[in-house]
Model the fold of this input.
Amino acid sequence: MDIIKVKDYQEMSEKACSHVINNIHRQDAPVLGLATGSTPEGLYKQLIEKYRQKKVSFEQTTTFNLDEYVGLENDDRNSYHYYMQEKLFNHIDISAEKANLPNGSAADLEQECRNYEAQIQQANGIDLQILGIGLNGHIGFNEPGVSFASRTHVVDLAASTREANARFFPSLEDVPTQAITMGIETIMESKAILLLVSGKQKTEAVARFVNGEISEGFPASVLQQHPQVTLIADEAALGEV
Ligand code: F6R
Done:
């Protein structure tokens, strides 16, 4: 695992941006795995900036997001579809057909999960998966206890995850109780992983991720077994690591 220690959130976002652009430039038809949440917002701002400066184009890029809430329409302000449009897709030259997220309002959610897996396979897999980490070690919405053999599936969200994400909703009751997420095995099949972490509230999670035992009780620990992981973390998040 490569660990890149940076000063703060801004530097994490800039370093992540260079890493992503290098990856895009290495491939004819790059496939990126994307995350939502607070962590990658700075990265997306940087990517938009580089696109405006004509340092990168996304015309050939295909993206697959990690997850989406169940029961929210794509145009719901709290859906991850909406987040991605607002924070990235509306501002770059990616084509709408190449920007993929699971459809959390599909009538048949199990079929939707199978379709999403098939789409990733058809794109020849993910070249670079961007990840954030939850306080309980979740990646995507793979909560503690998830099987390391899981593929894209419907999950019940942990109470702690709903509480952590309530800041984006009018109230806790409005936070959906389920989501579709890529599974651990789906994530592990990505050719490379870029994990971003910022802030002292994540210090314990980072320490467990880097040095803790590999266990389904702390899903991110599985990444210790991936051959190509880059962690970009700021001083606050790294703590003593
Ligand atoms: C988002 C996702 C989640 C977040 C994690 C950290 O698509 O899959 O695993 O990466 O909850 O969220 P933030 O960045 O808001 O701390």
